[in-house]
Specification:
This protein is of the alpha/beta class. The chain folds into 2 domains: 94 residues, Orthogonal Bundle (434 Repressor (Amino-terminal Domain)), CATH 1.10.260.40; 195 residues, Endonuclease, Chain A (2-Layer Sandwich). It has 13 helices and 6 strands. Strands 3-2-1-4-5-6 form a 6-stranded mixed sheet, sandwiched between helices. Strand 5 and strand 6 form a beta hairpin. Helix 3 crosses helix 4, helix 5 runs antiparallel to helix 6 and helix 11 runs antiparallel to helix 13. The longest helix is centred in the N-terminal third of the chain and has 18 residues. It is elongated and about 65 Å long. It starts with 5 loop residues before the first helix and ends with a helix.
Length: 306
């Protein structure tokens, strides 16, 4: 393989990122390894057997899953099998080492960051576009600290005050990705019942709705409200987050959150089904301008906006 390999040339800019992006880099390593394997005409099972892995282990590596990246020895063994040249090997191993640098969220206690949630935060940090639908709460990336505190206290009524504050700190820190110089596009569709459900107090709700109005006016944030009188809305029964990444053959990912776990979907047919569902919901919702009007009217009429 030539040192001018387009696979490697597209990877090199990621070596200069100032902020660690372990989830993205693990996915990039996995995608490139899968590409090298396909270039030499090996199936996943054949490659795994050749280096002494189980097919499941190689599948995890190529999918970029797990809290930690694969070991350098494992990746070297695969690159030797695929006969990559010195330059390709060097770039991929540098990428792998950067994938081992912890993201800011990985400094939080594992009780707050189980593996499935660690993956979600990492994917959001790496995403080019985030689409979300919420039927019960304001989307996490758009919550005020006071609203988050009310959500945590409602969901974990016996949690000690220190844990509550750490959870609030974590969610508040997550919001900062929308203030970056290169923020993702965020498109949030929210059921109108979320605006009427009082969490914390009316003052908390007023502040939250005013914050939604402010965020919805940013060029990279779109908020749409599904009104209560849309009785046939094609809304899923649980929150949905749809993540899209810029180029490099990375698959779209759908995140479905449960009470104490989550499901990640990456199969193209499954993610496409959710993309179509979110498109339909957006069509049924008020447009962004009408949604802003409803947010302002609800803040003033129900919560006495300042």
């Amino acid at each position: 393989m030539s040192s001018e390999s387009p696979r490697v040339s597209r990877l090199e800019p990621y070596l200069d990122r100032t902020e660690p992006a372990p989830t993205l880099l693990k996915m990039l390593v996995g995608v490139q390894l899968a590409g090298f394997r396909e270039d030499v005409g090996l199936s996943q099972e054949q490659a795994a057997r050749a280096v002494g892995f189980s097919p499941a282990k190689l599948s995890r590596i190529e999918a970029g899953k797990g809290r930690r990246p694969p070991t350098e020895d494992d990746v070297r063994a695969l690159l030797q099998l695929y006969k990559t040249d010195d330059h390709e090997t060097s770039v991929l191993l540098q990428l792998l080492r950067r994938a081992g640098e912890p993201g800011w969220w990985q400094r939080f206690d594992k009780r707050l960051m189980p593996e499935w949630f660690d993956r979600l935060v990492g994917l959001q940090e790496a995403a080019e576009a985030i689409r979300t639908f919420e039927i019960q709460y304001v989307p996490g990336l758009l919550q005020t600290p006071a609203y988050t505190r009310a959500v945590v206290e409602r969901g974990l009524p016996s949690a000690p005050a220190r844990e509550v504050e750490r959870r609030v700190e974590l969610r508040t820190r997550r919001r900062e990705l929308l203030q970056r110089s290169d923020p993702p596009q965020l498109w949030a569709v929210v059921d109108e019942s979320v605006l009427w459900r009082v969490l914390g107090s009316r003052e908390v709700m007023r502040e939250q709705l005013e914050y939604l109005v402010k965020m919805a006016q940013l060029p990279h944030v779109t908020v749409q409200i599904v009104p209560l009188d849309v009785t046939n809305a094609s809304a899923p029964a649980i929150p949905v987050t749809y993540l899209r990444f810029g180029g490099l053959e990375l698959p779209d990912v759908v995140y479905l959150e449960h009470i104490r776990s989550a499901t990640f979907l990456e199969d193209r047919d499954e993610t496409e089904e959710y993309r179509v569902t979110l498109d339909r919901l957006a069509d049924e919702a008020l447009n962004p301008r009408e949604s802003l009007t409803l947010l302002r009217e609800t803040a003033a009429g129900r919560y006495g906006a300042r």
